[in-house]
Amino acid sequence: MRKKLVAANWKMNGSKALVQSLAEGLKAGLPSLENDVNIAIIPPALYIADVQRELAETQCGFGVQNIARWEQGAYTGEISSAMAADSGCGFALVGHSERRQLFGETDEAVADKVRQAMCHGLVAIVCVGETLEERNSGSANAVVAQQLQGCLQGVDGAQWKNIVVAYEPVWAIGTGKTATAKDAQAMHKHMRQLLAELGAPAEDITLLYGGSVKPDNAAELFAEPDIDGGLIGGASLNSDDFISICKSL
Ligand code: PGA
Fold first, then answer.
1. I need a surface site. Which of 1, 8, 125, 136 has the fewest CB within 10 A?
2. Which CATH number fits the domain that encloses residue 123?
């Protein structure tokens, strides 16, 4: 049985005041969840300890939005997988399209980050997805195949249980445009086949959809057989919307 997961990517948003109000909203809404959804809250790193303290009595797990590709040392500004694990994080986003586009993160760098996450027992949420030009030119499947292959080549054996893949078409992130449930399902099915080719226990791997998931489109996306949850950006900054999305799974 694959685990269902909804992850909240707060991106570079928030403040101590927002942590407090979001946490209050989440604590009020979480008891109403009757499904077996797993939840990961992924705030900016500086607020992780605050979020952990506020949500300590809940079922939420916690994560970082990015990790270093190196183990430790003279890498000013970076946060290592060991530090994330030591701070009580169970999840790390890697290869988010904003990191790829704005910070030049390559598949090679993402593969190093995945290796680091595996070494320290983190669940790596590996993000892939095509741009609008790539979709329009018919190369979406090939682009995602190349990303998966490049980012997951070092993963082996028992490590696969710590891999989650998030399909986030770049053109759908923060734009209000969502892939249709059918298109998203088609890509998820494609990804599951690719994972099997890479030696993964593909049927057991949790695959998330991300890109403008909102309370009014979540149920339709999550109803698809190969979509096991969501990676939620904008809507995770509103606790009512986030709880409603979690309920849809
Ligand atoms: P969005 O972001 O829900 O705001 O589109 C998703 C993401 O980038 O993870």
1. 1
2. 3.20.20.70
